[in-house]
Design goal:
Length: about 375
């Protein structure tokens, strides 16, 4: 049984009722046995849990230190292209936007990597718009060897691929795939994805399973917080995560919790997620899954990021550019979305050190 089969049996109305009818007693029971318990996750994500956020935070800090120590992995995105064949109204790369389009050549990628290496990074996330004909498998197979020569850990956040494709990329050195559902509400999903292959909700929902069957070491799930009710989207992602870990246990898992940010032609959040709500969500997922990796991007403000580092976050980007070629030649006309934390990586790392945390630029060495 695939997660699509399970998803079809889940009642959104029943889950929402449980979320918004949870009581203080439900939250207190959840705090006693949160690990791997989706029923507990319901209560921890509910409005009833808001008075317990401090207690949740204390438990989240203790669990994170126990499992990950004081280390936080440092990574940086490298945008390969802003070409896109999809219409997604929350993204600056959407097909109808009249922006300059660019796909990096081998030479430009080498220039970008050379500058990134001077920042200290050894973990990189390759990102592109979704355009199969011009930024597809031939392009990925061409450029991936260049990247794996320079970086010890290489992840990709591109369009969903087929299982054989992922196997080919693993052979070229791919370590991780980030593939976000954006929202688990099919109706809302259809409103925001109106053209292109990404408009197929079911195909995207089943994509992480193709990644897992191919044998990718690490798989990232995520929702774009603000497209729909964030509590319900987070809960359904919890169900998805639970299924993936139990079915494809050989892979490691991470989640990303980005809030909707301004971009060219973008939309406003349907449901606002406050800073307090984001803290609650991070703590809830840490209590739910102690080994889960949680990433924090530069979408958030410096002050908030500094305060979130210790709460359950395990991986952080810094000094990021959301435009192809943006490290060598910054050009805001090519941006995917606005960045809130534009501090240099070393400044962010120093903020971690001041809080007793250890920024890790490279956490392993090849045996060769």
């Amino acid at each position: 049984m695939s997660f699509v089969d399970i998803f079809k049996k889940l009642s959104r109305s029943e889950l929402k009722l449980r979320l918004y009818s949870s009581t203080a007693a439900d939250v207190e029971r959840a705090l006693q046995s949160p690990q791997g318990n989706v029923d507990s996750l319901v209560s921890l994500l509910s409005p009833a849990a808001e008075p317990y956020i401090e207690q949740m935070a204390q438990q989240a800090v203790a669990l994170t230190r126990q499992r990950f120590g004081a280390s936080i992995g440092m990574y940086i995105p490298l945008y390969l292209s802003n070409l896109c064949a999809n219409e997604c109204d929350y993204c600056g790369f959407t097909m109808s936007n009249k922006i300059k389009r660019k796909t990096l050549t081998e030479s430009e990628i080498k220039d970008e990597m050379r500058l990134i290496k001077t920042m200290g990074y050894d973990s990189i996330l390759l990102v592109s718009g979704e355009h199969e004909s011009k930024v597809g498998m031939p392009y990925f197979k061409q450029i991936l060897p260049l990247v794996t020569e320079q970086f010890s850990h290489v992840a990709m956040e591109v369009q969903p691929l087929e299982e054989p494709d992922y196997k080919e990329l693993i052979a070229e050195g791919l370590d991780a795939v980030m593939l976000y559902q954006e929202t688990y509400n099919p109706v809302t999903y259809a409103e925001h994805h109106t053209r292109g292959k990404k408009s197929d909700f079911v195909y995207r929902l089943e994509s992480p399973e193709r990644v897992a069957r191919a044998g990718v070491d690490k798989i990232g799930l995520g929702v774009l917080l603000g497209l729909d009710d964030w509590r319900l989207d987070a809960l359904l992602m919890g169900h998805h995560l639970d299924y993936m870990e139990k079915t494809y246990w050989r892979s490691r898992y991470s989640i990303s919790l980005p809030r909707l940010r301004p971009c060219t032609g973008g939309v406003s959040p349907k449901v606002e997620l406050s800073d307090k709500g984001l803290v609650q969500m991070i703590c809830a997922f840490r209590l739910f899954n102690q080994q889960l990796e949680i990433s924090l991007s530069t979408r958030e403000t410096p002050k908030l990021r500094d305060n979130l580092f210790a709460l359950g976050v395990t991986h952080v980007s810094a000094g990021s550019s959301t435009q192809p070629g943006g490290y060598v030649e910054p050009n805001t006309e090519l941006d995917q979305f606005e960045i809130s934390d534009d501090r240099p990586p070393q400044v962010v790392a120093n903020a971690m050190l001041e809080r007793g945390l250890n920024p890790v630029w490279k956490d392993w060495e090849s045996g060769w």
